[in-house]
Structure formats: structure tokens, C-alpha cells
Fold this sequence. Notes:
Chain A is mostly helical and 248 residues long. Helices cover 79% and strands 0% of the residues of chain A. Chain A is globular, with a radius of gyration of 22 Å. Chain B has one domain (2-233): P-loop containing nucleotide triphosphate hydrolases (Rossmann fold), CATH 3.40.50.
Amino acid sequence: MKRLLPFSAVAALxxxxxxxxxxxxSGLFPNPLQVLFGLVELLQRGLLAKYVVASLYRVSWGYLxxxxxxxxxxxxxxxxRRGEQALNPLLQLLRPISPLAWIxxxxxWFGVGDMAAxxxxxxxxxxxxxxxSMNAVRSVPPTLLRAGRNFGLSNLRILTNVxxxxxxxQLIVALRISLGVAWLVVxxxxxxxxxxxxxxxxxxxxNAGNRYDLVVAGMVMIGLIGLVLDVSIRQLExxxxxxxGYGS
Amino acid sequence: MEFSTDGGPIEVxxxxxxxxxxxxxVCILGPSGCGKSTLLNIVGGFLAATSGKVLIDGQAVTxxxxxxxxxxQERGVFPWLTVEGNVAFGLFRLDAAERxxxxxxxxxxxxxxxxENAYPQELSGGMKQRLEVARALAVNPDVLFxxxxxxxxxxxxxxxxxxxxxxxxxxxxxxxxFVTHDIDESVQLADRVVVMSTRPATIRRIVxxxxxHPRDLSSPRYIELxxxxxxxIGLAHKI
Lengths: 248, 239
């Protein structure tokens, strides 16, 4: 019964959507069936797979680049007080700037194309990841660090055997949140900086003849893929060696 | 020992002169906040004294050392490692066979057999404490520093853990420095009790507990020693 609840909510939404689509007068707002046909049309034209792959490609690169740079930087800043004192104000200054505000700069630097979008996704994931890793290190209980030192571990071993595992639960939460942000930003970036992808599909379908059925089809795909990404990364939180970090 | 604070330096410990023999069990007893943990941290090498020095086997202590292991309250175990993983933590210099042998030995010694693959959150407070003791003993240290190790346990578990500690000590003769604010605990465990004064703390008195183990907690001698310590701490005998 509990498992059915989310599905009944979706069913209710679709029903309300049907009714709402019937009452509107412009004739532009599509009903769920039209959106489904829109999806089938995109599939037949080969656009759906192409655009999904394009979006995922950009997210993967931007996000992975951010993960491999932000986490080491954050760990370093959390470990060395001086580094944190020097760089934290800069991070806090950059953080409130929406990644979307970087769109013009990113096009200026990288031109219209994949690189511009990847750069935006990188920026959007980098800052929250760096700040979260820094905080994760700082919240490692001092007793555990002391135990590490007491057993004669080198600094490198303390990092790999104490700090990293102790911050992992927080890091995984940060990874999950920043993946969500990356997925939000790719759509926005594609609306402006590139000529493919799900974000491009949405602006293009509107501009080329008010195809709102395709607009909503794009939105549905974005939602579904976002859900799949979130569910997959959540699997990490279920690892046995991590469960201690999430309460019981 | 002085700590600098916003309100100027605070003298925590002053003129501490204490000698501990090899294999001795010494309790450092004092009121909360008197600086007994600070003393233990200095002896253990985690804090540098503002003046004076600590010599162990004639060598000055300059930092923490695997030959002298601290045991904290139960929060000291690594929550991401299993019981085995925790015991193995300090054994990274040994080869696999020797490591496995030590793990098996110490898991058994502290009575955690059958829980080798359990994670700390699946263990009770007392079991976590046993685990921490096993992890400390596994690296075969000369000295154990115990900083109110049973403070977070309920009173029944605490009694069990005390006799467990004495049992383990008979098996593995270690020098033990044990910080506590519990008078009964010190009389039950120690060969000698070092009574500290309030801040700036100094040694008020050192009391020999010459009773053999197991100690009878209702014997006249036990009560006499306990009352002596109560008096030293400056507490009246009645509540």
C-alpha cells in the first residue's frame, strides 16, 4: 500500500492535468496524451536519445571534473587552517553567484558548445562540493584524529584511514546535492550555450512553432532522469560502512 | 602547565612530581575540571607542558607514541570499521598472518568473540569500551592511559567493566594510568591513588591501596580507604 502512494499521487496529477488542459482556451497547453505522443515523435526522429546523451555527457564531465578537484581542495582546506583562512572568504564570495550568471563569461571563454556547458556544470558543482568537504573534515571528531596519531599513523595514513572515512557520509550527501544542482544547471546552460540536449529541446520546441507538447515532453524527461540520478547516488548511502553516519 | 585564554593565562597544573613503576596501576583522582585529564594528555604527549618534563624509561616524551595508548570514553572507536577492523587499526606494520592472530587473540580476550564483523553502532556501550581496550592492547603497548573510560556507562556495566579491566590486566601486565573522579572506582582498581587538588592542581596526597584482588567492597579496610579519599577530596561523608 505504501509503495502505491507515490503512484497514486502521479495518477492524480495526470488527472488534474487532463482537466486543466481541457479548460484552457489557447489550445497551446498540451494534455498528457499529447505529451506522450510528443515523446514518441522525438523517439522516432532519433532526437530523444541524442539529446539525453548530449545532456548526460555534459553533466558527467562537468560533475566529474568538479568531484576530482573540489574534494581534494576541500579536504586540504579542512585540514590546514591557514589554507581555509585564506580561501574560505573567496569561496563564500563566489557561492552566492548563480552558475547561470556565468553563462555570458563561459560563452566568451569557450564559445558556444559543449565546453561552455561543461564549465558551467563544473562551477555549479565545484563550490558546494568544496565547501562541504571542508566542513566534513572539520567536523571529524578530535578523539578519532588523536587515536590515529596515537597509533603512529603518518599524515597520509591519517588522511586515508581516518579523515576520509570519517567524512564520507557527509561527502556522499554533498555529492548527491551537487549532482542535483549539476542536472538543474545543464538544462539552463543548454538553453543558451549549445544546440543540443534537453534544455535546447525545450527552447527550440517553443521557438520553432510553439510545440508545447515537446516542451513538456522535455520537462518530463528531465524530471525522470533527475529522479534516476538521485536514486542511483542514494544507493551509496546504504553501504554498510557508511550507515553509522546517517543515524539509525 | 598554563593555558592561555581570552582572560589571560590560567594555571592548570603546578609542581606535579609523580613517579610510576613499571606494571603499576595508578589512579589519578580529582574533582571535575581540576586538570587531571590535562596531566594525562601531557604524559601521553598530546600536550606540551609549559614547564617541566615527562620521562618514560629515561626518555623525554615529545609526542604521542604507539607504545603508550590512550583509551577514551566509548566514542573513540572508529564507527566505519567492524570490530575486527578496529582491532586491526594499529597493526598496519604487521604481516597478515600475525595481524589475524593478534585480532583473534584480543577479540577473545575482551569477550567480543562472535562480534568480529559487527559495526560499533550494533554494540552496547560496554562492548564498545571493550573494543577500544582491545584495539589499544593489540599494538602491545607498555602503558595504557585511560581517561574516565567508563564515565559514559551505566553503573552496572561500569562495575562489570572494572572487573573485566582487572581480569585483562592479569593477562596482559601493563602500566596503567587511569583518570577518574569516582572515588570507589579508584579504590577498586588502583595500586596507588593520586589525589589531586582543585585548580591549579597539585598532588594532595598519594594513597597506597595495598589490598589484594579481588577486593571485598564491604570490608572494613575498603571502607576505611574510601573514607580517607573522601576526606582528602574534601567531601563530608554524609549526603
